[in-house]
Recover the amino acids of this structure.
């Protein structure tokens, strides 16, 4: 599979615009075990000043990547067991980002299946924790530039013909009703209950 890396300046900096623009892009993970790739089909925007955003209470060692330049990886651990991958947004110092919730697996499916201990392709990357496990994404990648780094990067996809829908974000209690979750309509790889994917 030939992939063309996204160049700096192509992606928007605005958080909601970035969440939409990432849909259809190809996420690429280069690992000593092999390459995995997938088409991004679901994202969530976490805005500057948003009470649901990890940056809301200010900069810490854990969330520092959200306050850096845009298009850096912010990787954090939830529930002590699973990692989540985000792309920082807004000008440096703002504190905002986009959570990549789900991808459609493309390359390295056998490796993903081994990591996830399942043969069900649909279940490999539906949800941010599953995605990170399947792609081998952990805190060692926190802060990298996803437009320049060789370990985890973004490539052009075919998102131009994708029907994008939006609805409330999943799994949060603060500002939970804001329509800041973006997803590819009709994709079997989008996470969450089916009723939420008809918004």
């Amino acid at each position: 599979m030939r992939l063309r890396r996204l160049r700096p300046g192509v992606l928007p900096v605005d958080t909601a615009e970035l969440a939409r623009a990432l849909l259809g892009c190809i996420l690429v993970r280069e690992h000593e075990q092999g390459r995995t790739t997938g088409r991004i089909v679901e994202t969530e925007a976490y805005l500057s000043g948003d009470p649901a955003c990890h940056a809301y209470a200010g900069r810490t060692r854990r969330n520092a990547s959200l306050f850096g330049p845009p298009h850096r990886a912010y990787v954090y651990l939830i529930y002590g067991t699973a990692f989540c991958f985000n792309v920082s947004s807004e000008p440096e110092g703002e504190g905002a980002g986009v959570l990549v919730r789900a991808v459609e697996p493309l390359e390295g499916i056998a490796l993903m299946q081994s990591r996830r201990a399942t043969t069900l392709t649909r279940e490999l990357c539906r949800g941010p924790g599953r995605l990170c496990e399947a792609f081998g994404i952990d805190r060692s990648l926190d802060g990298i530039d996803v437009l320049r780094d060789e370990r985890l990067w973004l490539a052009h996809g075919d998102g131009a013909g994708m029907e994008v829908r939006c609805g409330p974000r999943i799994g949060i209690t603060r500002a939970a009703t804001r329509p800041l979750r973006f997803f590819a309509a009709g994709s079997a790889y989008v996470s969450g209950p089916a009723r939420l994917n008809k918004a």
